[in-house]
Design brief:
The chain is mainly alpha-helical and about 110 residues long. About 65% of the residues lie in helices and about 0% in strands.
Length: about 110
Amino acid sequence: MHSNSPHDSSQADIRRTASGAIDTDYYHRCARVERGDFLRVALSCIARCGWRVWGYIKKKMEDQFTRQQLSVLSTRELKDIGLARGDIDAIANGAYATDQTRCSRSRERLGKCA
């Protein structure tokens, strides 16, 4: 009933030698390739994670630099550029509202754009 022909779906995946034995060397070579692929994938994941960490560190350094540069300005200088001392952290973190947002909030409170 069972045939060993290569067209039989249950036997098509098994690679055999000329004598009919299972070709174990072939499967060991395939396993090495898979391990090599695993290592390549693992290293690329580690590299991507490293770049993400570097991006996070770089962003924090830029935020700190911005904070330091604005902190040395006097209250008068900050007022001249339209900022208050309390805005420094929001600016450094990138959470400072845009002009359009600030303008619309001012209209709601004052009835005009300040």
